[in-house]
């Protein structure tokens, strides 16, 4: 982030600390909505948040409620505020995390498998069916993208609704469990594919491939984060 951007974030933090608790809850709900829908570290976004904070502080000094700034519909106010601000590309963001997820999946699965082989004094080589191995990685990445996208989508739909904790997070859990069960079914079907060339490979190499995916995902994420593009 540029120096002006960092200064704005510091000022925004100081202004937030001046707010009474009765203003903070509404402010934090609106801020979370803004962060989800815009590039959080962008200077334009910070400037918009800064103006919003100053309006709240002014309303607080005058003894007015936050509705004097936002109106009765907080979601409509937030949508108007982020209009024209740099938007977060959820699919790109999810794609980067999906690469990391594929790496974590390979690393976890084959590390566990190697531990069992170590206990049984078995060799660390395994035979993989190339088409099913590649298809499983694609499916893992696809479901990773779908999960992140759906979580963002659900959040946008239920933002500012006065739902109970259990109702809100129960919906997220339902989405997550539903996708996970579908993923398990697809993975099982893919693992039963017995066509195409097979390859005998040391599991260390598959673990290294997983580590490479994780590192690549983190590097791309940091570069995009610094460039405010995801």
Automatic annotation (TrEMBL):
SUPFAM superfamilies, sorted: BH3980-like
Pfam families, A to Z: DUF1129 (PF06570)
Keywords, comma-separated and alphabetical: Membrane, Transmembrane, Transmembrane helix
Keyword Membrane in annotation: yes
InterPro entries per the UniProt record, alphabetical: DUF1129
Record-annotated membrane-spanning stretches: 90-112, 132-155, 169-189, 201-221
Protein name: DUF1129 family protein
Lineage, broadest ranks: Bacteria, Bacillati, Bacillota, Bacilli, Bacillales
